[in-house]
């Protein structure tokens, strides 16, 4: 089994310091099921690749088992895919061989540990129970681009269909410790199998290695269930603890939103934004509308008052936010006819979702600036290429106006979770490019008082599909 990790940066040889493995040496590590070898097939200042090769002894695996694990003699114990595919054996090897890097430590390059780097990981063969769609569901929400290849089960019998074994490459700007933690958790999830007993220790490993990302992953329940080998009690405990993490994060987000609202309160910008977006959506004639990043459902509440609107779907990545929206919209108390108009769904804006297709309009109110800049391309495809609503209404802060807020320090964004804030020119350049690439026209409108020098506090783009 082969895993390679490639870094293209300057100097790329820093990968050796991050992995704590010298590029000039071949190193071998003894494992209970065989050996792991680490070497560097390419080393230069521009590009460096580290390879981890597992040499699994299938006979040794059987010898180590207690009688009763597999009664009697079967050839399957000796002849199987385990020596050749990425599985829980590889996860164990990652923890054993790259344990220091997985923990995020580097004496020689401590500053580099926390930097997002252009990294690529290639798995030569991985079994994927769920196919290409499963690979995308697991990796794309984490910001990766994927390349995958699967062949036929048997070239002589094409009717048998596609093999469940894939060659997979993932790329992204990511910290090395995050890449390793993603691989450590998701490889056995894809394989849907583990070679050892799953108990409380595995629950702790899942929560430790998924601490910084799993609670926000839209497939966290699937991940927990498969990782813990369908042990219901353990999976339920994992979800409860992940929900506790998300509740804490949501509490922090609510504090941040209060801070942002305090900055903008004199202008009542939030209400002005919602009213402007609602008017634009109604003016487009749309009857089926998406609210992407719906949060607690404030825009949905406005749209529910409009008889023209027959269906509203609010989507958010946070299950906790959707629970709050459910309560504040009082959906359980509505008549059946009214309740059928509104649906709340959990999902990510970073990978294709068939549930978003067929709508006449979509709104994103102060959402785009919370996305990582390197993920915008994925978002653009999801919304403008795949979902492709007739009208898209999108608002975002105008960073030029920040100088007008007395209680906002120079150089700071309005919200601590904003990944960027655009000037008017930057926003228009982005919107015009997206419109040109995906068959839309676009117009712009200010929201809030317009200053002669710095413009409005909020800027809005309205995309209209060209017939």
UniProtKB/TrEMBL annotation:
Give the record's keywords alphabetically. Magnesium, Metal-binding, Methyltransferase, RNA-binding, RNA-mediated gene silencing, S-adenosyl-L-methionine, Transferase
Where do the Hen1 N-terminal domain residues begin and end? 1-242
What the entry lists under Gene3D superfamilies is as follows: Hen1, N-terminal domain, Vaccinia Virus protein VP39
Which reaction is catalysed here? Answer: small RNA 3'-end nucleotide + S-adenosyl-L-methionine = small RNA 3'-end 2'-O-methylnucleotide + S-adenosyl-L-homocysteine + H(+)
tRNA-binding is among the record's keywords: no
Co-factor requirement:
Mg(2+)
In terms of Pfam families, this protein maps to: Hen1_L, Methyltransf_23
A GO BP annotation: regulatory ncRNA-mediated gene silencing
| Keyword Plastid tagged | no
| GO MF annotation terms | metal ion binding; RNA binding; small RNA 2'-O-methyltransferase activity
Q: EC number(s) in its UniProt entry?
A: 2.1.1.386
Q: Which family does it belong to?
A: Belongs to the methyltransferase superfamily. HEN1 family.
Q: Which PANTHER family match?
A: HEN1, SMALL RNA 2'-O-METHYLTRANSFERASE
NCBIfam families for this protein: bacter_Hen1
Please identify the protein, giving its name as recorded.
Small RNA 2'-O-methyltransferase
Give the species. Paenactinomyces guangxiensis
């Amino acid at each position: 089994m082969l895993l390679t990790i490639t870094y293209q940066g300057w100097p790329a040889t820093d990968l050796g310091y991050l992995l704590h493995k010298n590029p000039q040496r071949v190193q071998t590590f003894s494992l209970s099921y065989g050996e792991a070898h680490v070497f560097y097939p390419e080393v230069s200042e521009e590009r460096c690749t580290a390879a981890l090769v597992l040499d699994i002894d299938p006979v040794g695996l059987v010898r180590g088992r207690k009688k009763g694990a597999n009664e009697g003699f079967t050839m399957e114990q000796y002849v199987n895919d385990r020596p050749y595919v990425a599985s829980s054996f590889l996860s164990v090897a990652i923890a054993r061989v790259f344990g220091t890097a997985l923990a995020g430590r580097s004496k020689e390059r401590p500053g580099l540990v926390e930097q997002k780097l252009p990294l690529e990981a290639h798995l030569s063969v991985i079994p994927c129970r769920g196919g290409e769609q499963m690979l995308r569901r697991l990796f794309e929400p984490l910001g990766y681009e994927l390349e995958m290849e699967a062949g036929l089960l048997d070239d002589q019998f094409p009717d048998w269909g596609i093999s469940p074994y894939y060659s997979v490459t993932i790329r992204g700007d990511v910290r090395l410790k995050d890449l390793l933690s993603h691989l450590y958790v998701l490889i056995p999830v894809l394989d849907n199998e583990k070679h050892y007993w799953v108990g409380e220790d595995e629950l702790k490993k899942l929560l430790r290695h998924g601490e910084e990302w799993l609670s926000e992953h839209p497939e966290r329940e699937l991940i927990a269930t498969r990782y813990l080998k369908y042990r219901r009690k353990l999976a339920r405990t994992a979800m409860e603890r992940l929900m506790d993490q998300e509740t804490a994060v949501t509490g922090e987000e609510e504090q941040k939103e209060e801070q942002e609202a305090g900055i903008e309160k004199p202008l009542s910008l939030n209400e002005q934004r919602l009213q402007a977006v609602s008017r634009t959506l109604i003016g487009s004639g749309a009857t089926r509308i998406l609210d992407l990043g719906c949060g607690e459902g404030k825009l949905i509440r406005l749209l529910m008052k409009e008889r023209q609107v027959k269906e509203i779907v609010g989507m958010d990545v946070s299950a906790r936010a959707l629970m709050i929206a459910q309560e504040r919209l009082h959906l359980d108390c509505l008549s059946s006819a009214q309740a059928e108009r509104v649906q709340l769904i959990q999902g990510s804006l970073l990978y294709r979702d068939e549930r978003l297709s067929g709508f006449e309009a979509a709104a994103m109110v102060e959402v785009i600036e919370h996305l990582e800049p390197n993920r915008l391309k994925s978002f653009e495809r999801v919304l403008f290429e795949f979902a492709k609503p007739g009208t898209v209404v999108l608002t975002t802060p105008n960073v030029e106006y920040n100088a007008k807020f007395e209680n906002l320090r120079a150089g700071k964004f309005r919200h601590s979770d904003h990944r960027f804030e655009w000037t008017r020119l930057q926003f228009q350049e982005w919107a015009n490019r997206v419109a040109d690439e995906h068959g839309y026209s676009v117009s712009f409108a200010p929201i809030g008082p317009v200053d002669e020098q710095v413009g409005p506090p909020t800027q809005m783009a309205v995309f209209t599909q060209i017939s």
